[in-house]
Write a structure and sequence with these properties.
This protein is an all-beta fold and 171 residues long. It is built from no helices and 14 strands. The strands form 3 sheets. It has a 7-stranded mixed sheet with strand order 1-2-5-6-12-8-9, with no helix packed on it. A 5-stranded antiparallel sheet has the order 3-4-7-11-10, with no helix packed on it. Strands 13-14 form a two-stranded antiparallel ribbon.
């Protein structure tokens, strides 16, 4: 089940599950998506209608049990854009999941989460419990992890990469 938020979220407890917020980004500036932990700052051609899905309480698809925080985001837009900055917040008490907060980075995933790439330009703010990535030119799935290698699972012969989940080694 998904909560479709039209206003702003105030979490007096912990909301586990999926929250969806859609906004029209019409000019350069900073956009907070209903206080669900995602802020997008637009630096040029705007992405127009943009949807942020926040998934809380579960690890992202394709990550092992303790390989990422228990929060991830899926962001889509109706239009190509120049460049945006992305700031993602997390709940350090409930979602850290054995990650080293001072070493976390944002990971960019393909649409189904079978392939992830660590974004080495990520900047962590351990005071606000957030991580930022500047200069994004496309949206996708976004996860937060301090691991440099992901767990690979083989379904069949380990020497055959087509049997791996994800299908390739992370870069």
């Amino acid at each position: 089940d998904t909560i479709f938020l039209s206003g702003s979220l105030t979490e007096n407890g912990y909301v586990r599950g999926t929250i969806s917020v859609e906004k029209v980004l019409s000019s350069t500036g900073s956009y907070n998506f209903g206080n669900i932990g995602a802020t997008i700052s637009v630096n040029g051609l705007v992405p127009e209608t943009t949807r942020v899905l926040r998934f809380t309480g579960n690890i992202p698809p394709g990550f092992g049990t303790a390989d990422a925080m228990k929060r991830y985001y899926q962001i889509t837009s109706s239009q190509n854009f120049d460049s945006v900055n992305l700031n993602l917040k997390y709940d350090v008490t409930r979602e850290l999941n054995s990650q080293s907060e001072n070493r976390v980075t944002i990971w960019k995933g393909n649409s189904d989460g079978t392939s992830w790439v660590r974004q080495t330009r990520s900047v962590v703010n351990s005071t606000s419990h957030s991580v930022q990535l500047n200069g994004i030119t496309s949206f996708s799935l976004w996860a937060i992890s301090s691991n440099h290698l992901k767990t690979l699972v083989a379904d069949g012969d380990w020497s055959e990469s087509q049997n791996w989940i994800p299908k390739s080694l992370p870069t």
